[in-house]
Amino acid sequence: MGKILILYYSKSGNTKKMAEYVKTGAEVIEGNDVRLKSIDEATADDVFWCDGIALGAPTHLGVVPWKMVRWWDGNTGEFWQNVDGKFGCVFSSSGGWGGGTELTCQGLAKILMNFGMFVFGLPDYTSGDMTLHYGSICAGEPKREDVIESCKRLGRRLSEWVAVYVDGKREESPLVNRYR
Amino acid sequence: MGKILILYYSKSGNTKKMAEYVKTGAEVIEGNDVRLKSIDEATADDVFWCDGIALGAPTHLGVVPWKMVRWWDGNTGEFWQNVDGKFGCVFSSSGGWGGGTELTCQGLAKILMNFGMFVFGLPDYTSGDMTLHYGSICAGEPKREDVIESCKRLGRRLSEWVAVYVDGKREESPLVNRYR
Amino acid sequence: MGKILILYYSKSGNTKKMAEYVKTGAEVIEGNDVRLKSIDEATADDVFWCDGIALGAPTHLGVVPWKMVRWWDGNTGEFWQNVDGKFGCVFSSSGGWGGGTELTCQGLAKILMNFGMFVFGLPDYTSGDMTLHYGSICAGEPKREDVIESCKRLGRRLSEWVAVYVDGKREESPLVNRYR
Amino acid sequence: MGKILILYYSKSGNTKKMAEYVKTGAEVIEGNDVRLKSIDEATADDVFWCDGIALGAPTHLGVVPWKMVRWWDGNTGEFWQNVDGKFGCVFSSSGGWGGGTELTCQGLAKILMNFGMFVFGLPDYTSGDMTLHYGSICAGEPKREDVIESCKRLGRRLSEWVAVYVDGKREESPLVNRYR
User: Fold this and answer.
1) D29, C49, D102, A94: which is closest to B110 by C-alpha?
2) DSSP C106-160
3) Distances from the Cα of A155 to the Cα of A132, A145, C31, D73, angstroms
């Protein structure tokens, strides 16, 4: 049974809403256990527990917010060389398009890479002008249907990859067989 | 008299339209000479000529399109240590939000930094959910009024900085006096 | 049997040497098939063939060299939504430390992410002052023992992850059991 | 009289040493006032005061350390739209080459860009294999002569640009006349 953690920091509530949509998407794939936690609730054990992680935070100044960095920094001693090989993806919200969400997604991705995790994006569109190639992004509150769908699809894909690679369902997966 | 170059590569025509709006904005500040050129038209002399440059390209695979990289690569011998100290800003279009425009803006910014130029963004919004903190970005064709205004404001600010710092209008500038 | 592709572009020969060391490392894990190809030799089929890819290029202007971008750009139509779920890592050389290798590694990583691949780094050191957290990097020719070891370890880890996740050796892997 | 601020966060003391070398370089240009402050000592007024800023921090997890992000975050209300148009450059230290210094330099640069400042690198080498194209970087303690020189040259160039553009010495500057 695959284990999925959605870990987020939210200030205005927008990233929290994104996280909830990511969770909804992750639960579409049956047979995985999905946890949603803010950094105020999560402990190092949640990361040890999971096979796949979706990490989200708003963009502040184009970088990862300090409370999110502090959370990982405080657990670095435990995580170092002990959490690699997990599957990871990222999401971020900001006040406006162009406000740094893609840049903060890259920052979140670097944190996961730093610990040896696998980071992926989706070669996919959720509408004529909404993509999630490097993670899901949102300007303001996630209200647009294509933004909500972007969050859901991110969570679903994470859940799919965990099912495929961790839960041993590789042979029966249309996702994998697609590219064979 | 300050000299402004808007240099772009466009495949679909969207980045070209952005470039034209950047030019419109740059021309708002009187007394600067503004040139708009695609990389098919521009030569190394255009870069030598300018005091400020706005550099634009669509995002391809999250990185700077190869034709734009090739253009700079081919002029590196001439530019190296000969074009630093110019003012620069960037813009990018993509098929959709989240498609890599911010990442490509960073790539374009790195090219300018590599040659010792000054790269800036705007701490500004052009609507409730449109910013240009790290350059102007656009999903698809620039139709939204706030995207068009983002391009114009980018060009205008470039033109203002050149007037302030190169054309010696520092004492009389509200832009500079604002932060004193 | 896992399949590993080391794909590189080299101008001076330094990245080619790195690629050869990556190959040596990848071959340490028995039972995987390892191919080394430059972008002049490789076709789209090599990417379709592989389960894991190590992608390398020198840094030019802080971004991915145009010939490497062009190679992927030319194959985008075939690759789009057809190569995701493969394991990927990156490496880069430059004239000097601080010359953009980490930035170019990020550019290469974005290309892989764009196509839905998994990108990872190594939470590891190969000497007191050499790491490969975001890919292997090198200043000039790979002569330092810790740089050579960095390339080898990158290839080896790629080969290990493919064995673990693609070749079904997850249960017996010390790499995976380590973090349980 | 130009005003230069070297602002840093240091944990191990290595970035502090880099900052001191940056200061030494900045003082080479006569007629500028140079301040060196850690984020524990500096207040928002130091940023308002300066015409040019060199910002430094170690790399933690490939991103800007949380204490540095928190410092800027706490002053965002005051800084927003009030500190743009200043000249900025960056520097970073890490445990090893490849450990994220270039990435953290980019993070620091994004913070400065976010506030509308001009960010630059140096198209220069300080030895056969040491550059500072995107800021000065160091692995461990700054002991290598070319690393120390990199820090000094970064500070000197910042001081030169301030003299040229803020202190009105543009006409007499070899730096500017070089590219005419």
Assistant:
1) D102
2) HHHHHHHHHTT-EE--EEEEEETTEEEBTBEEEESSS-SHHHHHHHHHHHHHHHH
3) 11, 16, 33, 30
**Backbone conformation region of residue D61, classed left if phi is above 0, alpha if psi is from -120 to 50, else beta:** left
CB contact under 8 A, D103 and C134: yes
Q: Which of B133, B141, B153 to mutate to test the interface with A (most CBs of A within 10 A)?
A: B133
Phi and psi of A161, rounded to 5°? -60, -40
Chains contacting C with at least 3 CB pairs below 8 Å? A, B, D
- pLDDT tens digits along C98-116: 999 999 999 999 999 999 9
Q: What is the mean pLDDT of residues B47-71?
A: 97
CB contact under 8 A, A130 and B62: no
> Which class is domain D3-172?
alpha beta
Residue C169, pLDDT > 90, answer no
Tell me the domain boundaries of chain A: 3-172
Structure tokens at A47: 């990361």
Residue C20 Cα to chain centre, angstroms: 11
Distance CA B165, CA B160 (A): 9
Q: What is the pLDDT of residue A177?
A: 46
Measured CA to CA, the distance from residue B7 to residue C165 in angstroms comes to 46
Cβ–Cβ gap A119/C114 under 8 Å: no
Q: What tokens appear for B96 in the block?
A: 């959709």
Angle in degrees, 0-180, between the axes of helices A101-114 and B101-114, rounded to the nearest 10: 80
Place of tokens 């892997």: C173
Under the banding of pLDDT at 50, 70 and 90, the label for residue B119 is very high
CB A130, CB B97: distance < 8 Å: yes
C-contacting residues in D 16-55 (Cβ below 8 Å):
none
In order of B95, B159, B172, the CA distances from B90 in angstroms are 18, 13, 26
Greatest C-alpha distance within chain D:
44
Maximum distance among all Cα pairs of chain C, rounded to whole angstroms: 44
Angle CA A104–D116–B16, to nearest 5? 80
Question: How far apart, in whole angstroms, are the C-alpha atoms of residue C26 and residue A144?
Answer: 45
Q: Could you give the ipTM of this predicted complex?
A: 0.94
